[in-house]
Amino acid sequence: MLRKDREMPAKWAESIIDKCKWAVVSMTGEDGAPYCTPVSIARDGNFVYFHSGKAAGARTRALLKDPRVCVSCVGDVNPGYWKNFTTEYESAIFRGTAVPVTEAEEKIHALRLICERYTPGAMEHFEAAVERSLKITAVWKISIEELTGKRKKYDRNGVEMKYGRMETEYASRA
User: Fold this and answer.
1) What residue ranges define each of the domains in the chain, with the CATH number in brackets?
2) Contact assessment for residue 18 and residue 43, using Cβ atoms and an 8 Å cutoff
3) Which of 16, 25, 92, 169 is 20 to 30 A from 47, comparing alpha carbons?
4) 10-36 b/e with 16+ CB inside 10 Å = b?
5) DSSP letter, residue 97
6) What is the pLDDT of residues 7-39, one digit of tens each?
7) pLDDT, tens digit, for every residue of 138-151?
8) What are the pLDDT digits (tens) for 83-141?
């Protein structure tokens, strides 16, 4: 990481994984070229789950050929902050290995986590949806092997808050 003064602790980076609206999974495409795709994720400890169709598309073929991934998660962003044409941001990047989840129990667990995160108000329909779609849904599990978090944030006076100067909301996560 070039800007070590903006690096944040691992627990903070996990909080960004947990709150990002979606993540982008980058991998090596089956032809050796870079390939990335946005996914809905849910973290369970040191694992991150995402789902896709079971048909073997480009993502599936790429992951089966080379399961190494790099995942980018972006939290809060405030472009054009403080009249200095900069952007406040928070991000987490992790590297790991993606493996297909094959056991029905773990697939259902992962799908429940994803649905609770993105559609908590519709969980009464979860069992019927899983029954309908489990056989045609693929679930992938990424083990987090490297994790970094970074932020650029300013205080009320327009002074950048470097690591160690955290607002109350972040202090409890460190």
Assistant:
1) 4-154 (2.30.110.10)
2) yes
3) 169
4) eebbbbbbbebeebebbbbebeeeebe
5) E
6) 676 898 899 999 999 999 999 998 999 999 999
7) 999 999 999 999 88
8) 667 778 899 999 999 999 999 999 999 999 999 999 999 999 999 999 999 999 999 99
